[in-house]
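Consortium newsletter contribution from the modelling node. Members have asked for a concrete example of what our holo predictions look like. Here is one, prepared for the manganese (II) ion complex that several groups have been discussing at recent meetings.
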Amino acid sequence: MDFYCANHDFKKANIVLLGVPYDGTSSYRPGSRFAPNAIREASYGIESYSPYQKKDLRDLKICDLGDMPLSFGDKNLNLDLIESFSKKIIYGRKKPVFLGGEHLISYPLIRVFKEKYKELVVLHIDAHSDLIDSYRGEQLSHATVMRRVAEIVGFDNLYQLGIRSLNREDLLLPYRDENMCLFNLDKAKEFIQKIGNKPVYLSLDLDVLDPSIFPGTGTPEPGGVTYKELLECLFLFETLNIVGADIVELSPHYDQSGVSSITAASIVRELLLLI
Ligand code: MN
Ligand code: MN
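And here is the predicted structure:
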């Protein structure tokens, strides 16, 4: 099943959707490997038209390539597979949007983007800083992913928004004073100013949303934002040169109502219309 309206031929498409069903390091509640298909299924319950952006998915040429065929269990093998599958897409002329999976999937993806775009900036929206150096001995985990990403792109090129769960040691890391904040649209505007026209990779961890409206996630964190607040923030990014994006950490089975998957599908729609 394709994401709604993402049924264009690969050759003719200019946006490519690709599922990355990996959740091997989820530290609390795994299950995000089921997210890409849950998002696709939920996309048939929403309209293709965005009344916010006044744009329609039907006017875009999107190709949904389905999920990467990953193995279950072997982390290093899976990270290598993600890197090699994504390389062909990232080096092509189409704009890729990746559906996680857990947040560690951003690490191999950003590694490839950085090879292609020397000046790459990462814009990270999340409840969690994901900045610890190692989580219970693991250097590669969804809890350490932005630390590894900062080592790739430089701390000065990592902008973090919505962060309400972190270690105090994170604050001692370079540029965190200026480049990391709670959810704050004024700061988002400041980030946009600083980023200018550099190529941007947008990494959206859906647990930035409040668990009351988005319970379907592995590490829910109270005090999050509403759907409309998140959209308002995303729309600010319209002027940015977004070269790729991921949407991670939906774990559909923790939400029996299914509203988390519908919310995720709706955010995917807005993102596809935005970039
Ligand atoms: Mn995260
Ligand atoms: Mn998170």
